[in-house]
Amino acid sequence: MSYRNIARPPRYTSMDTTDVWCDWLSKERLVLPVSKGRCCRVCHGAVGYGRNEEPYGRCRNCLDYIGALDALVPISYSVDDGLESLLHRYKDFGERYQWMAAPLASLTVEFLLGHRRCLETRAGSFDRALTVPSGGTSRGFDHLRTAIEMVDEWPIPWDFNVLTKAKPGRPPRGTADPSFYRLTQGASVTGSRILLFDDTWTSGATMASAAQCLRDHGAHRVVGLTVGRQLRSGWGTSDELISTARQQAFDLGRCVICG
């Protein structure tokens, strides 16, 4: 992995407006447009081996997640020297990098403000937004909640008291195993339309497992939203997708649904 060192911009503060942070992410090339080229039609990741129906079918992981999610919408591709570097440092290196919560929250809220209607074409009007519970125990903070609470007003209400981890670790890659999650006592999702949020989709196992848990408890619709869809160079069409993305400007006015 070739993570990039990202310095805090001296003229930026955590209280800067969301559009300012989004502009910074774009100028620093930390976000890349998600392709509609030779990629999985569900997660928009690389295809090229195994049981997939290249180029417009499901990748081999998503073949195992059928029924868990009604749709997955990544905001950006996440590569090692881009968004992946930001997410890695923010989550795993303590207070020194917690300023990175501001651009991540800004990107997410601006995307939702612009594309809520796109997302709702897959589910109808959302009742609430949930986060996928973190698998880490050593960070000392809830990285998703910390970022979300930096923004005062969201177009969809957040509920942090619905889903929790049922056991340590994380589901095996390519497996939707809802036993890793549970509803908190007294919580109900029966008949709900839920936006399920996570920082990144790699194999998709954590998101699919959390979504399946919600479906098993009666959720009517579950749409996944991630800040990034991770791409690793050297597998299938990854290099092609990365190369194409680097040649294009990131446009927050477009998403994988509206094009």
Describe the structure.
With 259 residues, the protein is α/β, with parallel strands linked by helices. It has a domain at 66-230: 3-Layer(aba) Sandwich (Rossmann fold). Helices cover 26% and strands 14% of the residues. It has helices spanning 18-27, 83-92, 101-120, 143-148, 205-216, 238-246; strands at residues 71-78, 128-131, 163-165, 181-183, 193-201, 221-230. It has a four-stranded parallel β-sheet, with helices on both faces. The chain has a two-stranded antiparallel sheet with strand order 3-4. The longest helix has 20 residues, at 101-120. The protein is globular. The two termini are 30 Å apart. The model has no long low-confidence stretch (mean pLDDT 91).
